[in-house]
Protein: Transposase IS4
Amino acid sequence: MARSTLAYANEKRSYKVFEELYYCLKKQLFNSPLRGIGAEFDKTVLSLDSTTISLCLSQFPWAHYRRAKGGVKVHTLLNNDT
Structure:
């Protein structure tokens, strides 16, 4: 499967799917016999998201992304505990 295909599918998917998956995996890890691994999560767990936002080059000439497209790259660090 191409990465762009997966990205497109995830773009259309509700964030609640990923939220539920996160809490399910976290619960399994803490209830696992390998409890020592779960202890590492006593610290804050963060997720990094990287998104490209398309912009119109005629309105934002500084935003060259490709030859005929404009855009900016946004990196967001999410705190999963809040």
In short: Residues 1-42 form one domain. The first strand starts at residue 46 and ends at 55. The radius of gyration is 18 Å. The helical segments are 3-12, 15-30, 35-38.
